[in-house]
Amino acid sequence: MFSLKDAPTTASTLFSAYASFAASMMLVRSMADQLIPRQLHSYIYSSLSYLFTPLSPHLTLIIDEHSGMTRNQVYDAAELYLRTKISPLTERLRVSKTPRKKTISISIDQGQQVNDTFDNVKLTWRYVCSSDQRSESQNHSLRSHNNNNNQSSEKRCFELTFHKKHKDKVVDFYLPHVFAQANAIKQKEKVVKLYTRDPCLGDDENGMGSSIWGSVNLEHPATFETMAMEPELKRAIVEDMDRFVKRREFYKKVGKAWKRGYLLYGPPGTGKSSLIAAMANYLKFDVYDLELTSIHSNYDLRRILLSTTNRSILVIEDIDCSLEMHDRQFDEQQHFVHQQQSNNRLTLSGLLNFIDGLWSSCGDERIIVFTTNHKDRLDPALLRPGRMDIHIHMSYCTTSGFRILGSNYLGFHGDNHHHRLWGEIEGLIESAKVTPAEVAEELMKSDDVDVDVALDRLANFLKHNKVENDETEEEANKIENQEAKRQKMDDHNVNKIGGGGFGRGKGRPMQQ
Ligand SMILES: Nc1ncnc2c1ncn2[C@@H]1O[C@H](COP(=O)(O)OP(=O)(O)OP(=O)(O)O)[C@@H](O)[C@H]1O
Ligand SMILES: [Mg+2]
User: Fold this and answer.
1) What segment(s) does the record annotate as region Disordered (predicted)?
2) Percent over 90 (pLDDT), the chain
3) Which residue ranges form the domains of the chain, and what is each CATH number?
């Protein structure tokens, strides 16, 4: 065996000593290669290299874009979250926008680093792209999955580095924080959709699914700020919705389906449809506009409702005239006799049963809105307590409603309320019984809105309506008085004939 101790220290001996050492190492390595099973080679070499590399105090988590064949949700959350953490020092950013999105998204480019701090823990994110080593078959299936030929061969991941001692804090608290923030961003950026039944589209081969509904982006600009309504009513609706979306656990605890029903009633043009849009924009819930006249049976209804998604608003407008809905009691009596027939037509009880039962138990965070111009014509089954949780009366334009429209349409704020016509209009607005739609129309009539002209026109419109209302009211009073007189005469005669027998109330008609 070679020994350095006895060797003379000349250059040539040093060289021959090194050569001999290298030769011995090669011999040892080739013996090891032969004696140690092949599978253990890489393990042993990496363990040896680990022993000779200084220990790093840092830990790096690798967050791949895909987990197997599906997307890695941690990656998606990180991508959204890191958009909010881009610092002015970042040198390269990626910018994109898809037709479905309203905003431009900015994300970090490969190799770029983003620093973050969470509960005094310093973290560094790095975005890494490399060419994918996966087999061609895997790439192929990913390609078809992503429908994105150029990018599928690229392997993308985030590397999250921090001090090892914070591992638990990062996994248990920081990553959930990243998820929560990403969800909030997603929610904010969500484009609300309006789904309507498209008769031109057939069902898919299962007879179910998205083809039942066609969708467009809900571009309705109504918000609670633009709605001309009493401020207290607006506040009450917003608070009610806020409470509703926060109460997942509560609904579970009390065993109630997580749904909420609103009945909006009032004359045409008072903002019922606008309010639905404002609700959808506020909650970022998609809207399913259900036209009952296009549905022919309870079976169809069930199928259509089952294909709606959670966190959505189901709207049935003009419920009183959508259908000749049968009285619920009548329908229940007939149910046993004509069960088959009942499935072949759409009935009020079919709708109510479904909303109360099946539909509400298989979905979460559902809102249902019925609208009507005539609440008095609705079937009592629809109005009974517990069915529609909140009844909202959309009324003619009030003073505060006019203030909101004035500020929206004419840019009136603060001092502008001192306009010479303002007081006159406020004095007329409630007695003129005009709808917010009519007021909005008057304010928008000229192309370039001249405030004087617009208010002048509105004042005249209100005066004209008030005169008409007064005349109609006079006429109605006259008829009412005549009616009352006639009634009095009838009652007089009835009392004479019936004599109030069998406990009938005095003055009640006999046929009752
Ligand atoms: N309360 C309101 N606040 C703000 N704008 C309103 C309001 N009511 C009506 N408008 C305006 O009038 C237009 C028509 O209103 P909308 O369609 O919401 O009324 P509606 O009550 O649904 O009527 P209908 O009973 O005929 O369906 C809206 O696009 C909006 O511009
Ligand atoms: Mg409407």
Assistant:
1) 469-512
2) 38
3) 58-189 (no CATH), 194-393 (3.40.50.300), 399-490 (no CATH)
For 33-77, the pLDDT digits (tens) are 666 666 666 666 666 665 666 678 999 999 999 988 899 999 999
- How close is the Cα of 422 to the center of ligand 2, in Å? 29
Q: What ipTM is given for this predicted complex?
A: 0.99
Q: Which residue has the tokens 């089952």?
A: 306
Kindly report, residue by residue over 233-253, the tens digit of the pLDDT: 999 999 999 999 999 889 888
Q: How far is CA 83 from CA 77, 172, 369, in A?
A: 10, 22, 37
Please give all residues whose CB falls under 5 A of ion ligand 2, grouped by chain where several chains appear: 272-273
What pTM was estimated for this model as a whole? Answer: 0.70
- Euclidean distance between CA atoms 370 and 389, whole angstroms: 11
Extract the runs of DSSP E, i.e. beta strands, from 377-420. 390-393
Tokens read off for 30: 């080739």
Coil vs helix vs strand at 154: strand
Best residue among 274, 317, 398 to mutate for probing ligand 1, ranked by most atoms within 8 Å of CB:
274
The closest alpha carbon to 102, from 182, 219, 203, 3, belongs to 219
Residue with tokens 């049963």: 353
Closest CA to 325 of 352, 356, 354, 365: 352
Do 209 and 203 meet the contact criterion of CB atoms below 8 Å apart?
Answer: yes
